[in-house]
Structures are given as structure tokens and as C-alpha cells.
């Protein structure tokens, strides 16, 4: 069971994410890259009971690497994609609608406490991100990755990761859901 918690110069640009009032990291620079994220249930903030399965869908307008983070009701952030069990890479081709997990992954995401408002943050990047510098697998052989203990720590870590990425090469999207 997965407990869901609650982005031509010769020098790389320093993409510094900013934070919206909703706690979402955003690229403050214009980019042609677009990414859309949605859940398997309709509504602005669909409800899921603890133990129910949840599935995420994404589509990008340019080839991109997709990363999914879950921000739980307590403010903790887990990296949910990529993970150790996903059959496919987290690379998404332009125009494809992709489900996570998909039918070939052999596992499902189940929502679990804490109860309350959760947020899924999608970060799409034209280049792979080096999350090994900041991610922490704390839960043995599971696919849950503890990434940050607060939204501020999440933004700090993503600032490090995104410092090697061109400003126009990454974008975010977010969806909300409620666990009851």
C-alpha cells in the first residue's frame, strides 16, 4: 500500500522556482512546454476514502520527463513518480495521455492517512532531473520516497535540482484531492 501525502547560452540558466499561495512550485519564466495533470475522478477536489485506489493522468505538448509529488495534509512531500516499481519510464511523448500507474505496472496507488486535503504536483522537464541529490528512500523496499518534511523544504530541494535546468525547459501543474 502506498501512503499518499497529502517541476542558447553556453551556461545553464538558474531556474529558481517560486511558490504560489496554494503552495505549488511554479516556473516564473515563460515556457512553451505545457503539462496537464488530472485524476481518475472528476471535480475540483474529489474525495477518496482511505484504502481506495487512485490513478493520475498526464499529457505534455512536448516530449518531457514527468515527476509526481504528493503533498499531504500535514505538509510532507513524497515523490511518487518515478518509483522503483513503475514498469515504464517517466518519459512522456508529446501528445500522449499517460496513466500512472498504468495497467502494466503491477501495482496500484492506495490513498492512506493522514486525512484531509492533498495535492499532487506534476513537474515536467525537457531533460531528466537529478533527484538523487535530494531524494531519500526511507521505507526499505517500497515505492514510497520521502522527499521533504514541509513545503518550504520541498521548494528548497527543487531549487537545487532545477538550478541545472534551463528556465524554459520545465513547468508544473497541480491537482487536489481529499482523503476522508
TrEMBL record:
Residues 48-128 form the DUF4384 domain. Residues 1-15 form the signal peptide. Keywords: Signal. InterPro entries: DUF4384. This is DUF4384 domain-containing protein.
Amino acid at each position: 500500500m502506498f501512503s499518499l501525502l497529502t517541476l542558447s547560452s553556453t551556461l545553464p540558466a538558474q531556474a529558481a522556482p517560486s511558490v504560489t499561495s496554494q503552495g505549488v512550485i511554479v516556473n516564473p519564466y515563460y515556457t512553451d512546454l505545457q503539462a496537464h495533470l488530472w485524476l481518475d475522478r472528476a471535480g475540483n477536489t474529489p474525495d477518496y476514502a482511505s484504502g481506495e485506489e487512485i490513478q493520475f493522468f498526464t499529457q505534455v505538448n512536448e516530449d518531457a520527463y514527468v515527476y509526481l509529488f504528493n503533498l499531504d495534509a500535514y505538509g510532507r512531500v513524497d515523490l511518487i513518480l518515478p518509483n522503483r516499481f513503475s514498469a515504464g519510464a517517466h518519459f512522456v511523448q508529446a501528445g500522449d495521455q499517460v496513466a500512472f500507474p498504468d495497467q502494466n505496472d503491477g501495482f496500484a496507488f492506495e490513498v492512506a492517512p493522514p486525512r484531509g486535503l492533498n495535492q499532487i504536483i506534476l513537474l515536467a522537464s525537457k531533460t531528466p532531473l537529478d533527484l538523487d541529490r535530494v531524494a531519500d528512500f526511507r521505507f526499505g523496499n517500497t515505492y514510497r520516497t520521502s522527499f521533504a518534511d514541509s513545503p518550504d523544504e520541498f521548494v528548497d530541494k527543487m531549487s537545487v535540482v532545477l538550478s541545472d535546468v534551463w528556465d524554459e525547459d520545465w513547468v508544473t501543474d497541480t491537482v487536489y484531492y481529499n482523503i476522508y
